[in-house]
Amino acid sequence: MTVVCIDTNLFLELYESNEDPMEIFLDIGALKEHLVFPDIIIDEFLRNRSKVLDRIADGVRRRETEEVRLPSIIRENPNVAPLQRTGEEYNRAVRTLYDDIQGMIAEPSADSVARAFTELSKDPVVRVLRRTEELVTRAQRRKLLGNPPKTTGTDTVGDELIWETLLEDLKEDLIFVTRDRTYRNHTAYLMQEYQERTGGNLTITDRISDALRLTGRPPSLALVRFEGWDETGR
Q: Percentage helix, strand, coil, to 5, in the chain?
C-alpha cells in the first residue's frame, strides 16, 4: 500500500487561506488509511499555529482607526458625531476580534483547524511514527553533513528528523506532500535515498489532490482553489 505524509506547512497555510479549511480536511480525511505522521509534524503544528494566529491578530489590530481630528469650524456639523460614533464602534469590533483570536491561541479547542488536525492525528487508523534519540542523532548528523532535506537558517533539525523518521519506519511507496523547497529542490537525491533505505518509491508533490488519486475521490472545489489549479486543471 502507498502511504502519504503531509508536511506541517500545508496545515499551517489553512489558517490564511480564503477557502473553508473544513472542506479541505474532509479531503485529507479520505486519505486517513494511507496517512503517516512523524510525531515531529504534530509538534511543529501545535508550536507554530500560535505564531500564525498571532500574525493574523496583529494584522487585525493594525486596522484600528485613529480619531478623526477636525478643525473647530467643522466640529459643530451634525454629521461629525455619527462619524465619531462609527469610528468608536469600529474600533471596539476590531479589539473584540483581536481578543477572540488571542483566545484561539490560548485555547486550541476554540480553533477549528487545530481541532480538526488533532482529531485527524489521533484517529486510530492514522499511523503516528515516534521519534527516538537515535533518530534525533541521525538528524543532527544529516544537518552537519549538509545532506537534504535541510532546515535552513536555524539550529533546529525538524526537516531532517521528519525525513529520518520516514526512512526508519516505512517500507512502502511514499507520497510526500509539501510546499517546502528543501524537499522539492532535492527530489532526485531524496528519491534515490528513499529507494536505497526502504525499497519503496518516493513521490514529492505540493498537492494533496495528487495523493487523493489513491482513493478515487475527486478533490473538492475548496482544495482545487487552495492548491492554485488553473482553468486547465494543471
A: 60, 10, 35
* Residue 204: inside a domain: yes
Q: How would you list the strands of the sheet with 202-205, edge to edge?
A: 3-6, 174-177, 202-205
Looking at residue 111, its pLDDT comes to 97
Cα–Cα distance for residue pair 131/13, rounded to 1 Å: 25
pTM: 0.90
Which residue bears the cell 487545530?
A: 114
Of the pLDDT bands very low, low, confident and very high (cuts 50, 70, 90), residue 229 is: low
Bridge partners of residue 202, in order along the sequence = 174
Q: Does residue 8 sit within a domain?
A: yes
Instruction: State the chain's mean pLDDT as an integer.
Output: 93
Question: Smallest Cα–Cα separation from 42: which of 155, 126, 100, 150?
Answer: 126
In a domain, 189, yes or no: yes
187 domain-assigned: yes
